[in-house]
Structures are given as structure tokens and as C-alpha cells.
TrEMBL record:
SUPFAM superfamilies: Folate-binding domain. InterPro entries: GcvT/YgfZ/DmdA, GCVT_N, TrmE/GcvT-like. This is Aminomethyl transferase family protein. PANTHER family: AMINOMETHYLTRANSFERASE, AMINOMETHYLTRANSFERASE, MITOCHONDRIAL. It comes from the Bacteria. GO terms for molecular function: transferase activity.
């Protein structure tokens, strides 16, 4: 059996063939209930009242401590650390020496030499590897995401992590506090006491109005969550289930899962040998209608994901030289694709026909069926102009939306076609049934798609107007 990613790649036809057909269970948010009320009401709550997102279980946590902690971050991040003060957070983005995105996550600076990274595995794997091979003077503690199915076994984390979001969020926060709470600047941190437990806080605003992300020792998880739900009852607070949680990005504009550009560079062979055969990079599947035998066709630059404004050349970092050579104006741009309702109806009704093979199943409210999603986007001349990467349904907008990246010459308002479903009846992934493809009409739209988020959201984080 292969022991690491490199051994898997050495045995594969090519990286794309391996990742398109890897046999994994469907991705779910672990531990948290799928729904508490129903996903429609839960989506509407972040627009109409308030929502409690439970982020405790589905993300990796990396604790970085030591005198070289900031240097490790600076050396591996496209972001500047010049204004990265204690009690601030940043959306950390890392790239390879060739300038391809590896991943992103949120970094919290809790003390001078103490940082916490929260996010998907690729960026934290890169941080841990660089800490080891670069011999940085840091101590690193990794708290992996909770098991997808604990099978009755106890679950333990270092921290619980919750978010209160929505137009009534601040009413709930001030009720919990017993009085007014200072509305700090976006991505600034403070603290709050809830049910006798001290929680650290991050000023957030997913729905365009002030909200908080809160975290503290896992032992306080249950009593803090219960206290928040009790305080929020009069304000219409709903708990978000795991089925609802990943769909909030459809309206606010973050593409969660870019494929890390680490599979081909000869200089990264040692890194691929360091990554175990069980790593996300080795086991998480590519899905979608775009198929190329060259995995580099799936690689992305920061600009294609809306992170161009984060790139700062005020420090040396891995990949700086490559990014300095990028023609920024030629880069694809992040957009929302608003799907045609009639075409979506064709997908649903094909399930009810006993004639022929139906279209690829569109799951509600999140339709992604792989970890790294790439659906071809075609213009009127059948030219492939980009990728649709994160697809689902918004009960608030009453339509299917996908987040993607497309050529800069395709203007907002254009009609394009998203090719839904994989070619040749589908790959061998466990999440794929036999199906046929459908060209779904879609309108190229702004990101964020939500008018509330677009007009009121803090610029820089998902709008990518300024750096944070």
C-alpha cells in the first residue's frame, strides 16, 4: 500500500485520473446535526433574524507558538504582516514557488508569539511542513477536524467555535453580555463572558451587519451553546445544521476548496513524500464536467479566487517571484453564476422520467459532489471561459447559484452555459450515479450575489476590494 501522496501519483495513470475516481464517502459536516429546523428556514435566518453557525467540528485547528511564529507566517503568506497586531485576524493565503494557490484559512493572532490557524487541510499542511524543513523556532499543535462519523465514540477538540450572524445578532450579543458591546473594526478581536465562561471574539459580518465569531475551551461547549440559543429565542435565532452551513458562501462569495497546485513541480517531491496517503491532497476528489489530463489546468492564481488584493510585495515569501511576473489584467475573475430556473427544473424532472438516463442529481441545498469542483463554463461560441466551482440553492434568492472564475473579457450580465454533470456517464466516484450532461444557462453576476452583502459587507475579505 502507498505510504504517501508521491507513491500514489507514481502508481497512477496521472494525478487527474486518480483524483477523479478516488473512492471516498460523501463529504459532510461532522457531528453537527444535518438540520435543526429545515435548511430553508435556516438560510432565511441569516437574512431575516439571526443564525448560529457551529464551526467546532469541520475544520482543522493549528496552534503556532514561538519566537519564529510570525516569520513562518510571513515567509509562507502572500499577505503582508506589517499591520498584523495582537487581537487581529487575517485570511491567510499561501502559494507554491510557481505562484499556484495551495489554500487559505483564517489566522488569529492571540498573543505576540501565538497564532491560531482555522481552515481546510491544504494550507495547514503547508504551514506544518515549512515549519519542519525550515527549522523555525516554533511549537505546533494540530487539532484535526472531528471524525466524519464518530460511531458512538467520544469527540474532543481543543476549542469550541461558534458564529452569531444576522440582523438581530447584535441584540443577542448584548443580551448575553448584559449591556452594550463595543462594535470593533472588522476582523478585530476581544472577549466576552457567556454562562460564566470566557470566550474570545472576532468581529465578523457574514450577512452585512455586525456579528461575532466566538471560541473557547471545548469543556464549555455545551453550556455556552445552550446559553446563546436561550438568549436568542426572542430574536428569532436559529441553529444552522451541517447541511445549511456550507451554503452561506453562495451569497457572500467565498470559494472554499481550490485544488492545491502541488502535484507536478519536481521541487515539491519532498513535500508530496511528506504528505501521507490519507491526506486531503491524496484522498479528496475532483468532480465536474471539466476534464483535462494535465492537472496544472486545474491550478489557480490568487487573482482567480478574488485574493489578488491580498498579495503584497513588502516582504519575501514563497512564490513572490512568480506572482511578480503575473499579468494581473489577464487573470480570470471571481463571479457568481445565477442559474436559469427552467434549466434547473429539467434536472429535477429528469429524476421522474422512466425514459433514458437522467441528469446529474442536484442535491439541495449544496449540489457539490466532490471536494475540488470544476464545471466547464462556455460562452456563446462554445469557448471554455472558466470554471463553476461551488454550487447550490439559496432560499433567500430563490434560485440556484454557483461561484466561479471566468475570463476577464466576459462582462457582468452575460449569458453563459455551465456544463452540469461529468462526461461519458460519469466517473467512478462513490458520489456519482450514471447520468447525462446538461448545458445550464446562467447569468454572470457580481460577487457577493446578495445585494445586502454586496452593498454593506466589509470590503476586502470576500469582496477583495482591499486587503485585511
Amino acid at each position: 500500500m502507498p505510504a504517501n501522496l508521491q507513491q500514489i501519483l507514481d502508481a497512477a495513470v496521472n494525478p487527474v485520473d486518480h483524483l477523479r475516481n478516488v473512492q471516498n464517502d460523501a463529504y459532510i459536516v461532522p457531528v453537527v446535526s444535518s438540520e435543526f429546523s429545515n435548511w430553508r428556514l435556516e438560510q432565511q435566518a441569516w437574512r431575516e433574524s439571526a443564525i448560529l453557525f457551529d464551526q467546532t467540528h469541520h475544520m482543522d485547528t493549528l496552534l503556532i507558538r514561538g519566537k519564529d511564529a510570525l516569520k513562518l507566517i510571513s515567509d509562507t503568506a502572500v499577505n503582508s504582516v506589517a499591520n498584523f497586531e495582537v487581537n487581529r485576524a487575517k485570511q491567510y493565503v499561501s502559494v507554491t514557488e510557481q505562484g499556484w494557490v495551495i489554500g487559505d484559512g483564517i489566522l488569529f493572532r492571540e498573543e505576540d508569539d501565538e497564532f491560531v490557524y482555522i481552515g481546510r487541510p491544504p494550507a495547514q499542511n503547508w504551514l506544518r511542513y515549512q515549519a519542519e524543513v525550515g527549522r523555525y523556532d516554533v511549537d505546533i499543535e494540530l487539532d484535526r477536524r472531528s471524525p466524519t462519523n464518530p460511531m458512538g465514540q467520544p469527540v474532543d477538540r481543543v476549542h469550541w467555535r461558534l458564529q452569531i450572524q444576522g440582523p438581530r445578532a447584535w441584540d443577542i450579543i448584548e443580551k448575553l453580555n448584559g449591556g452594550p458591546v463595543e462594535k470593533l473594526k472588522f476582523f478585530h478581536m476581544s472577549s466576552l463572558t457567556i454562562a460564566g465562561a470566557k470566550a474570545r471574539t472576532l468581529r465578523h459580518g457574514m450577512s452585512g451587519v455586525p456579528g461575532l465569531e466566538l471560541w473557547g475551551p471545548y469543556k464549555d461547549y455545551v453550556k455556552v451553546r445552550e446559553a446563546i440559543m436561550a438568549a436568542g429565542e426572542e430574536f428569532g435565532l436559529r441553529a444552522s445544521g451541517g447541511r445549511t452551513y456550507p451554503t452561506n458562501t453562495l451569497e457572500s462569495g467565498w470559494i472554499p476548496d481550490p485544488l492545491p497546485g502541488i502535484y507536478t513541480d519536481p521541487d515539491l517531491r519532498a513535500y508530496r513524500e511528506w504528505l501521507p496517503a490519507t491526506s486531503a491532497e491524496a484522498r479528496n476528489a475532483i468532480a465536474g464536467s471539466f476534464v483535462s489530463s494535465n492537472i496544472e489546468d486545474y491550478y489557480l492564481t490568487p487573482w482567480e479566487l478574488g485574493y489578488g488584493s491580498f498579495v503584497k510585495f513588502d516582504h519575501d515569501f514563497i512564490g513572490r517571484s512568480a506572482l511578480e511576473r503575473v499579468d494581473v489584467e489577464a487573470q480570470r475573475k471571481k463571479v457568481t453564476l445565477a442559474w436559469n430556473t427552467e434549466d434547473l427544473g429539467k434536472i429535477f424532472t429528469s429524476m421522474l422520467s422512466d425514459e433514458g438516463t437522467g441528469y446529474k442529481y442536484f442535491d439541495l441545498p449544496l449540489a457539490n459532489y466532490g471536494y475540488f469542483n470544476f464545471d466547464s463554463v462556455l460562452d456563446g461560441d462554445d469557448r471554455n471561459v472558466g470554471f463553476s466551482m461551488w454550487t447550490g440553492f439559496s432560499a433567500n434568492e430563490r434560485r440556484a447559484l454557483s461561484l466561479g472564475t471566468i475570463n476577464p473579457d466576459v462582462p457582468i450580465g452575460s449569458e453563459v452555459r455551465v456544463i452540469w454533470g461529468e462526461p461519458d456517464g460519469g466517473s467512478r466516484k462513490a458520489t456519482v450515479e450514471r447520468h447525462q450532461q446538461l448545458a445550464v444557462r446562467a447569468i454572470v453576476s457580481p460577487v457577493p450575489y446578495s445585494v445586502v452583502a454586496r452593498e454593506e459587507y466589509q470590503t476586502g475579505w470576500r469582496t477583495a476590494a482591499v486587503s485585511v
